Description:
Layout: E1 2-6, H1 19-23, E2 35-38, E3 47-48, H2 54-58, E4 64-71, E5 78-79, H3 83-92, E6 113-117, E7 122-128, H4 131-138, H5 145-154, H6 160-169, H7 174-183, H8 193-205, H9 211-215, E8 218-223, E9 228-231, E10 237-249, E11 255-256, H10 266-272, E12 282-283, E13 291-294, E14 302-315, E15 320-332, E16 337-339, E17 345-348, E18 354-367
Antiparallel strand pairs: 1-3, 1-17, 2-4, 4-10, 5-11, 6-9, 6-10, 7-8, 7-10, 9-12, 13-14, 14-18, 15-16, 15-17, 15-18
Cofactor: Zn(2+)
Pfam family, one: PMI_typeI_cat
Catalytic activity: D-mannose 6-phosphate = D-fructose 6-phosphate
Amino acid sequence: MLLPISNVPRDxxxxxxxxxADLEDRAPAxxxxxxxxxxxxxxDPADVSGGGTLADVTGGSLPYxxxxxxxxxxxxxxxxxxxxxxxxGFAREQGLAVDxxxxxxxxxxxxxxxxxALRDGFLALAGLRPVADTQRLLLAFGSQPAADQLRGWxxxxxxxxRDVIARLLGGxxxxxxxxVIAGLDTATSDEFAAELAVVRxxxxxxxGDAGVVVALLMNLVELRRGEAIFLRAGLLHAYVSxxxxxxxxxxxxxxxxxxxxxxxxxxxxxSVLDTTPGDVPVQRPDLxxxxxxxxxxxxxxxxxxxxxxxxxxVEITGPAIVLxxxxxxxxxxxxxxxxxxxxxxxxxxxxxxxLLFSGAGEAFIAQPGHAAD
Length: 373
């Protein structure tokens, strides 16, 4: 069974008026368009062509949530919990309404996620940079008291990244935050020029926010079209700008740490934060292949990209969702076929085991994964 599905873009403030519009070849939107959800998550289940929602069809059983994401401004700095942390946190907050602003856990699931860039130049902050590298970056500020203080904190023993983030977000370092932000205007470095430029822009959009200095501790990642990063539980991250396909475990659990007016619970964030430093690997599949896979170490989801130039047959393990992202996409199953306009999707029921793609374009297939969690 093939069911065409669609959804209305969510108008978060960091969204873009042009990125989704350009993808779908329509006029710019009047308000920001940030995310389009293709799934059965109760927060915003997809609409089924002809009436009803995907949740009516699946009973809310999909283990993943597929999205189009379009960012003109940086998202909040955030982490997601492990499944064990989510179960414990959700149970602890049962006395709060599910939509209460002070609630940290909206459900009892973890939220690992993968983002694939649809255009060159997708920018993200992902993971914490090794301390020695950040010490070199801070030399860009010269002999500046706030930067010197931050370097001193980073030279201490123990879990210094956790300690520094606790100071910055906990309101114990307002003078250092203000001084480092002021010093961004004159900081200069050949090695870290791109990082400084991105953080300057973040500072301009988030005046005085301690998250600006936390961003200086994070890796800057730039993705070209078709490249991806996987974000594990506990990994600090913030998408900065660009358009992509995002897939995650079916959860809405977010612990925020800056660059947002929304609820920030610093102790809870620190309790789930993984401060292990290092690069986040970029996946660079062969985009000339008919089917490119993005491997992930979790069982909740799998994602593949299909390059359509004529006819391509793909085996699937349902229930699946096919999202069209470019060109003319037609999908056929055993008993039916549908045209999938760019920016919309089709739900594929579990009884289907293969799909035939035709036309000329690009699509992504989401389905349950196979890796052990």
